[in-house]
Design brief:
By secondary structure, the protein is an alpha/beta fold. Strands 3-2-1-4-5-7-6 form a 7-stranded mixed β-sheet. Strands 11-10-12-13 form a 4-stranded antiparallel β-sheet. Strands 8-9 form a two-stranded antiparallel sheet. The longest helix is centred in the last third of the chain and has 15 residues. The two termini are 27 Å apart. S-adenosylmethionine binds next to helix 1, strand 2 and helix 3.
């Protein structure tokens, strides 16, 4: 049996990096601080332990050698919603706990123990937090440690029907196999905001930069309605008064979209988000609906407005409900066999914090496994 390279899963949450890398990498070590997430992880990786606790309490000696380290570190201080206190704020600052370990592993066994490849995943807000300085610090830190570094902005919607754009920073130390690097950016994965951030890197760091080459996936073949339950539990439905209230929060364009759906007797569903808009100088709570076959970005349910809602229309009736955790799991690209936490809110929390599984798989097959010299990996042609 061919042996697979090992990987380390930091900030492991519900283990979606592990699911995406299955068959390409074996997970040699996982860590997360949240007991509920660790339970979710264990339920999906029977026989494999996850080290539960603060990453700052781990020592390099606790971590086994591996080819790859994956770190989806907390995003709260980098996203607009979190106030953007940045890479040195308590939550997103956990990155430095991770980096301490990588540095420490580099000292052990003459550097042989440190992972050759590192993946950092976070929100697109990392591109601009603190005017781009957080990203510069992060890339410079890895470049100074001898890694070549590149990043891609990948929207999960390329693979599954959820609009979820995330930044993937991939660093590699050592020889780069042929075919994995391009001499110029790609419009799909390196949009203008990323190119501008790269252009602003200090000269020294710029020398370590690489434009990773990733093939474009085939056209997505599922849309939102194909993943929804037609007969959810009766308790999932909100009251007619709630539905009416939500409709009252819609601007005329969005109301018209619902009216058009209602005119068709067939079952249909649109995804709704509530957000604050400034109109005529006033902050107004708006509900916005989309019928483009996509859900909006799933978030961790911190309050009522962060839930992905659905307006369902059929035979002249309008009904309102939130996306169910199982539907959210499908939107994250997880298989039906993925074991969800029993409490719906916990399950939605695990999903909202997760990394899109098909994106991880695509990166694994086309970049990470080839970088690890793994057999059967598809290198970009
Ligand atoms: C963005 S989520 C990553 C989720 C994971 N990639 C997945 O697919 O489920 C960040 C995770 O970091 C964990 N975390 C936050 N601070 C931590 C710390 N100081 N030490 C260890 N884990 C931490 C959180 O509990 C959360 O599960």
């Amino acid at each position: 049996m061919a042996t697979r390279p090992d990987f380390l899963e930091f900030f492991a949450g519900g283990g979606m990096a592990r699911v995406g890398l299955a068959g390409m990498f074996d997970c040699a070590f996982a860590n997360d601080i949240d007991p509920m997430k660790c339970d979710a992880y264990r339920a999906n990786a029977p026989g494999h332990e996850i080290a539960q606790g603060d990453i700052w309490n781990l020592r390099p000696a606790d971590i086994p050698a591996a080819s790859l380290a994956w770190a989806s570190f907390p995003c709260q201080d980098l996203s607009l919603a979190g106030g953007r206190r940045g890479l040195n704020a308590p939550r997103s600052g956990a990155f430095w706990g991770f980096w301490n370990l990588i540095e420490g592993m580099g000292i052990e066994k003459k550097g042989e123990k440190a992972p050759k490849t590192i993946v950092i995943e976070n929100v697109a807000g990392l591109l601009s937090s603190h005017g781009g300085r957080d990203l510069q610090t992060l890339i410079t830190t890895m470049a100074d440690a001898g890694y070549r570094v590149g990043a891609m902005l990948i929207d999960a919607a390329l693979f599954s029907p959820q609009s979820r754009q995330r930044l993937f920073i991939i660093a590699h130390k050592g020889k780069l196999p042929p075919g994995l690097v391009s001499d110029q950016p790609d419009d799909t994965f390196h949009p203008p905001a990323l190119r501008a951030a790269v252009a602003a890197l200090p000269d020294q760091t710029h020398m370590a930069w690489v434009w990773w080459r990733l093939p474009h996936p085939p056209r997505r073949n599922a849309d939102l309605v194909s993943l929804l339950d037609r007969n959810p539990p009766e308790s999932a439905w909100r009251s007619d008064a709630d539905a009416k209230h939500l409709l009252s929060q819609m601007a005329p364009l969005h109301r018209q979209r619902v009216e058009a759906a209602l005119a068709n007797p067939n079952w249909n569903a649109g995804a709704v988000y509530r957000r604050i808009r400034i109109e005529n100088g006033k902050r107004i709570q708006r509900a916005e609906i989309r019928y483009d076959g996509l859900a909006g970005c799933l978030r961790t349910p911190a309050g009522g407005s962060s839930k992905q809602l659905l307006i369902v229309t059929e035979n002249g009736r309008i009904r309102l409900r939130a996306v169910l955790a199982r539907e959210a799991a499908r939107l994250m690209g997880l298989p039906e066999t993925y074991v969800l936490p029993k409490a719906e809110t916990n399950a939605l929390k695990v999903m909202g914090d997760g990394v899109s599984v098909p994106v991880v798989r695509w990166l694994g097959e086309n970049l990470l496994a080839p970088l690890a010299g793994a057999k059967g990996a598809k290198a970009a042609a």
